Description:
Elements: E1 3-8, E2 14-18, E3 38-40
Antiparallel strand pairs: 1-2, 1-3
Amino acid sequence: MPIFEYRCNGCNSKFDILHKSITKQEDVFCPECNSSNNKKLLSTFSAANSSSSSSGDYCETGSCGVPQTGGCASGMCGLN
């Protein structure tokens, strides 16, 4: 079941919707104002890592400052 992120064009709130199927998505209504005028956002994938790393608490390059628990991949996080 895919989860999609949306932004309401009416009240500008951001929310997630769990769809029952990727092929048939239900109508989306904003939970704040009940508007159906919403925009699907591009979401990023994140995965937690429970193992410790010898490179410390930061990215592989040590430049982005994001903990390695799913934030950075090979120092290419683009958060600088």
